[in-house]
Amino acid sequence: MSNEKEFKEIAIHCKNIVKAYGSGTSKVLALRGVDVDIYRGELMMIVGPSGCGKTTFISIISTMLSFDSGVCKVLGLDISKISEKDTVLFRRENIGFVFQAFNLLPALTAQENVAVPLLVKGIERKEAMERSAKALVLVGLNKRHSALPSQMSGGEKQRVAIARAIVHRPKLIICDEPTSNLDHSTGLNVMKLLSKLSKELQTTVIVVTHDNRILDFADRIAYMDDGKITHIKER
Ligand SMILES: Nc1ncnc2c1ncn2[C@@H]1O[C@H](COP(=O)(O)OP(=O)(O)OP(=O)(O)O)[C@@H](O)[C@H]1O
After folding, report:
1. Can you tell which superkingdom this protein's organism belongs to (predicted)?
2. Is the pLDDT of residue 218 over 50?
3. Strand 10-21 versus strand 204-208 pairing type
């Protein structure tokens, strides 16, 4: 149903990305020439066997990891050409992360956890807490502002993590196995939420997953094998 014709604006452009770890006899070629365009507002899933390069690929497009050759433009910016300092600022401004382990700070309430990226950016506490409250409403957690992570279910924790990922309105959300610590129906609800956010906020959402049960939520699925994207399935 959704295809390249619907998603006109390219959010991520990768051409022949190559990445090796180590050197000499211990050199591992993790990416052997990745080509892909990912569009604004689409939810793209990345699947493939263990060791095929998924984490390496999302680490590169989220500006966390350098690469050896090729071109990678994220939101129009050639990320191999910007300084370390500008990369950090770019990431803070434009990218939100969601991880399988939620990564919430245990001593902070839901609202405080969501406010963290704003406080890090230097936004004053009152405004950060107000924006955090709005993000919690967006993920359907309006009544859980003052709950600590230890008082929340897995699904609630992941929704807090998603609120934290979107609170600064990033253009890109990178999710690494977002449902693997959740039961089936909670995982489906989390994906429903990510899909809704991609459309309502026109945010590009990239999800690495081993969870076949959530593939229906993708606009497109990129299949990786042995350091390459071998094919892309339109849905
Ligand atoms: N820091 C590193 N040093 C050396 N080799 C690495 C490093 N990180 C990854 N690799 C190797 O690079 C290849 C790609 O790894 P990567 O973690 O990107 O795969 P993956 O598809 O995410 O795997 P999984 O599904 O198991 O998480 C693998 O052969 C892996 O062993």
Report:
1. Bacteria
2. yes
3. unpaired
Q: For position 1, what pLDDT does the model report?
A: 47
Question: What are the structural domains, with CATH classification, of the chain?
Answer: 10-234 (3.40.50.300)
Residue nearest atom 12 of ligand 1, based on CA coordinates: 30
Instruction: Indicate the burial class of 219 (C-beta count within 10 angstroms; 0-12, 13-18, 19 or more).
Output: buried
CA distance 132 to 145: 9
Q: Is 181 in the pocket of ligand 1 (CB under 6 A)?
A: no
Alpha-carbon gap, residue 136 to 127, rounded angstroms: 14
Structure tokens at 153: 């279910």
> Mean of the per-residue pLDDT values for the chain?
93
Probe residue for ligand 1, chosen from 19, 25, 29, 56 as the CB with the greatest number of ligand atoms within 8 Å: 56
In DSSP notation, 183-214 reads -HHHHHHHHHHHHHHHHHS--EEEEE---GGG
Question: Does any ligand 1 atom lie closer than 6 A to the CB of residue 227?
Answer: no
Tokens 């190559």 sit at which residue?
18
d(CA 98, CA 139): 13
Residue 181 is predicted with a pLDDT of: 85
Pocket mutation for ligand 1, best pick of 17, 18, 28 (most atoms within 8 Å of C-beta): 28
**Would you say 34 and 228 are in contact if contact means Cβ atoms under 8 Å apart?**
yes
Give, using CA atoms, the residue closest to atom 6 of ligand 1. 21
